[in-house]
Amino acid sequence: MARDTTDTQPIEGIDELVGYLAAGNKPREKWRIGTEHEKFPFYVDGNAPVPYGGERGIRAILEGMQEKLGWDPIMDAGRIIGLVEPTGQGAISLEPGGQFELSGAPLESIHQTCREGNAHLAQVREIAEPLGIRFLGLGGSPKWSLADTPKMPKSRYEIMTRYMPKVGTKGLDMMYRTCTIQVNLDFESETDMRRKMQVSLKLQPLSTALFANSPFTESRPNGLQSWRGDIWRDTDNQRSGMLEFCFAPDFGFADYVEWALDVPMYFVIRDGHYHDMTRYTFRQFMAGAARNEVPDGLPTMGDWANHLSTLFPDVRLKRFLEMRGADGGPWRRICALPAFWVGLLYDEQALDAAEALTASWTYEEALAMRNAVPELGIAAPFRNATLRDVARDVLAISRMGLKNRAKKNRDGYDETSFLNTLDEVVARGTTSAEEMLSAYHTRWGGSIEPVFMEYAY
C-alpha cells in the first residue's frame, strides 16, 4: 500500500465496516487487474545493498523517477518515500529494506500488465543505472544479513519493527528480506467473493510452489525452495495464514470483519503523525480504549482501511482480493502470476472447474500443502500425487479461462502465452529455486554472486 489513508469519516458501527468491503462489488465489465511487484536494489560494484540517503541512494532514485514521470511525491516526516500517479493509476513505494515496489494501475488485460511492467523497469533502469544500481528479482535476499540490510525512513515500519519480534520469529525477515509478486482482482458479489476466496486460498500453496525462487540466505543455500514461504509460517499468525473460517460454506464479508476486529492494530494517523496502537485490537479501539491517548481517539473509516492493509492472510480481502503466495522473480514471472489467477478466477467456466477440482479439499489438507511447499516445491505431496500433478490440471483450467476471455494483443495473440513459464516448471519438474541451486553447485562454483547478474533487471 503506497499511501496510508486519512479518511476522517467516523465509524458508527460494525455494519459500516461490512459495508466498506461490500462496496468493492463490481459488475464484470468493470473488473480489472492490478499487479504489484517488488525487487531488491543493489550496487553493481560489490553487489551491496542500497541505503536510503546519499547521492546514489534510494531517495535519489525516487527523486529521479519523480522528475521523469511527473508523479506526485508521497512524503513521511518530510522525506520522500514513494510516488503516486496523479489520477491514482499506479504508485511506487518502498518496502522496509528498500525493496522497490510498483503497484500497477487497474488494467483490463495481461498484455497491458506486461507493457506496464516493461515500461516501469525501463524507466527505473534509466534512473538507477547511472548511479551504479540494478535490481534483483528473487523472493528472498540472497546475501545480506538483517544487520547489513538498510532501513527505510517510513513511520509505519518503525512501529512494525518494534512489534514483530513480540509475535513471531521471522517477522523482521519478512519485512526486510523478502519480495513478492501479487495480483489484485475484483468480485461482483459476496457469493462471487466467497468462491474466489475459497478457491484461491486452497491453491495458494501451488502458487508458492510454482513461483518458488528464494533458496539462498546470507550467501548459502538455506535448505528451502521458498524461504519466503517458510518465513510466513511464523511471522505473526494472528494476522496471517490460511484463515480456516474462510472455508465455511456461508463465509461472507461479516466473517472477515469479525476476524479483523480482533487482530491487534499497528497504528493510527492523526495530523500526519503515526501513533503506535499495537496494544489494542480494532474492536477495543472502537470501544474507546484509546480515547484519552490519541488525539481524536475514536476510529474513522481511514483507520479501518489502514488496518485492513496491515492484515497478511494468504489471500487478503479489501475491496478486492489480493493473491499473496508468490515469490518475487524475473520479468516473465511478473506477467505469469496475474495470468495464472485471472485465468482461474475471471472466467465463469474456469472458476466452475477450479471450484469443482478443489471442492473436497479440506483446510487441513491445504495447510499441510502450505507447510510442505517451502522445502519441497512442486514435489510436495497431495493425496496420492504431488503438486506437480495438481499443477497440470490447474494450469489447464487457467489456460482455458484465458482462452475464453479472448483478450488479444495487436498481433492477434491471446493471454495464454503468459503461462508458458509455468508450463516449463511443470514439464521440467524443477522450480526456479532448484535451477538456481543446480547452478550454484556446478557452473557458479559454490558462489551466489552470479545470481546478481543472471536474475537482475
TrEMBL record:
Q: Which reaction does it catalyse?
A: L-cysteine + L-glutamate + ATP = gamma-L-glutamyl-L-cysteine + ADP + phosphate + H(+)
Which EC number(s) does UniProt give?
Answer: 6.3.2.2
| Top EC group | ligase
- Matches recorded under SUPFAM superfamilies: Glutamine synthetase/guanido kinase (SSF55931)
Summary of subunit composition and partner proteins: Homodimer or monomer when oxidized or reduced, respectively.
From the UniProt record, report the name of the gene that encodes this protein: GSH1
Q: Which cysteines are joined by disulfide bonds?
A: 114-335
In this record, what's one Pfam family? GCS2
Q: Answer whether the UniProt record assigns the keyword RNA-binding to this protein.
A: no
**PANTHER family tied to this protein:** GLUTAMATE--CYSTEINE LIGASE, CHLOROPLASTIC
Tell me, in a sentence or two, what this protein's role is. Catalyzes the synthesis of gamma-glutamylcysteine (gamma-GC).
Return the protein name.
Glutamate--cysteine ligase
Source organism: Mesorhizobium plurifarium
Q: Name one GO molecular function term.
A: ATP binding
Metabolic or biological pathway: Sulfur metabolism; glutathione biosynthesis; glutathione from L-cysteine and L-glutamate: step 1/2
Determine the domain of life of the protein's source.
Bacteria
Keyword set includes ATP-binding: yes
**Example of a GO biological process term:** glutathione biosynthetic process
Q: Family, per the entry?
A: Belongs to the carboxylate-amine ligase family. Glutamate--cysteine ligase type 2 subfamily. Belongs to the glutamate--cysteine ligase type 2 family. EgtA subfamily.
The UniProt keywords, alphabetically, are: ATP-binding, Disulfide bond, Glutathione biosynthesis, Ligase, Nucleotide-binding, Transit peptide
